[in-house]
Design goal:
Number of helices of chain A: 9
Number of helices of chain B: 12
Structural class of chain B: mainly alpha
Strand order of the largest sheet of chain A: 1-2
Distance between the termini of chain B: 81 Å
Distance between the termini of chain A: 22 Å
Strand content of chain B: under 5%
Radius of gyration of chain A: 21 Å
Helix content of chain B: 55-70%
Largest sheet of chain B: none
Largest sheet of chain A: 2 strands, antiparallel
Structural class of chain A: mainly alpha
Number of domains of chain A: 1
Order of helices and strands of chain A: HHHHEHHHHEH
Number of domains of chain B: 3
Oligomer: heterodimer
């Protein structure tokens, strides 16, 4: 079997349990996006108040109201995303999604429960997230409580075909370069 | 003019043959023939070498033949997954216009960037998994996917 044939025969990871790097990267993206949107909304409100009332409003992180609204916004961001589609923006970018523990589609109720128990995994210095690394199914505390799991949802085989197609178009006659992971 | 003796002889012969054939149990006779011994003596290669396959095929109505084929039954016996696994996708994309079609149909820079990012992160996932398994001295392989998404159970 040639090296090229071996490459073509690689299996896709679609449907497999997602690993820690993918999940961490997705969470970082979500955190940046949700905080960015929250900040923009606060800035827009400040601007509106300044235009209408004529005085500026300053938002302080130590302000308990702002903190409560931010926490509520985080619940809304994650809970709504998981309940509606099983994935947040960051998860969509990384090509992963939340499913039920048996692999079937997530129920909206489970998405909400997952968002509610998500903070539990931060307890004891993030001990709950350790499950993503060491648990057999890469499930954190909030996954175990909500009865969920996270899987790769993107089709790596199709991605590989696109990659090969682009290489074929760019350099006709040359073989495709190696080193492309099929995830 | 035909010799009357010859005509008589012919009639007698026909009658005798008819009587003999009627008296014989042909099925029993055939059952006693060792067909394997007969066939083992036949040189099929020599027979086939004498056959003009093209002439034979010219006389076959392929449309009619195909109409008699139960394509569904044939496809049921084909392992499509095994068939797909045997395809050298890289060569297929490289040697046909399929690559251009895929490239045109599959978005542009964003799609390319996402594919690359996901590919790299999945590689990192595998790297971390390998090291964790090594540190935990795992001997049994981990479940790769939830039960409903395992290939053997997901397929009908």
């Amino acid at each position: 079997m040639s090296a090229r044939t071996r490459q073509a025969g690689l299996v896709t990871y679609q449907g497999h349990y997602a690993g820690s790097a993918s999940r961490f990267a997705a969470y970082v993206i979500d955190l940046v996006v949700s905080t960015g949107v929250f900040t923009l909304v606060l800035a827009a409100i400040s601007y509106g108040v300044q235009v209408v009332a004529g005085h500026s409003v300053s938002w302080n992180r130590s302000n308990i109201v702002v903190a409560v609204i931010f926490i509520g916004w985080q619940f809304l961001y994650f809970g709504y995303s998981w309940a509606v589609s099983g994935r947040t923006f960051g998860m969509a970018v990384l090509g992963i999604r939340v499913v039920r523990a048996d692999g079937s589609g997530l129920e909206p109720r489970q998405g909400v429960v997952r968002a509610l128990v998500f903070p539990l995994s931060f307890l004891l210095c993030g001990l709950g997230f350790l499950g993503i690394l060491v648990q057999r199914e890469h499930r954190a505390w909030h996954d175990l409580i909500a009865g969920t799991a996270v899987i790769y949802a993107w089709d790596a085989r199709a991605a590989r075909l696109r990659f090969l197609a682009r290489q074929a178009e760019l350099a006709p006659g040359d073989g495709p370069p190696t080193g492309y992971h099929t995830g | 003019m035909t010799d009357p003796a010859e005509v008589l002889a012919q009639q007698i012969t026909d009658r005798v043959v008819e009587l003999v054939v009627n008296a014989l149990d042909v099925n029993d006779l055939v059952a006693r023939v060792d067909l394997n011994a007969v066939l083992s003596g036949v040189d099929f290669d020599a027979v086939l070498a004498k056959v003009d396959v093209n002439t034979l095929l010219d006389r076959v109505d392929m449309d009619d033949l195909i109409r008699h084929v139960d394509v569904g039954a044939v496809l049921d016996r084909v392992d499509a997954n095994d068939l797909v696994k045997r395809i050298d996708m890289a060569a297929l994309v490289e040697e046909t216009d399929l690559g251009a079609v895929i490239a045109r149909c599959s978005g542009g820079a964003v799609s390319e960037a996402l594919d690359a990012l996901r590919s790299q992160v999945v590689g990192l996932d595998r790297f971390v998994d390998r090291w964790v398994s090594r540190l935990l001295r795992r001997k049994l392989p981990l479940p790769s996917a939830p039960p409903a998404l395992l290939p053997s159970q997901a397929e009908p």
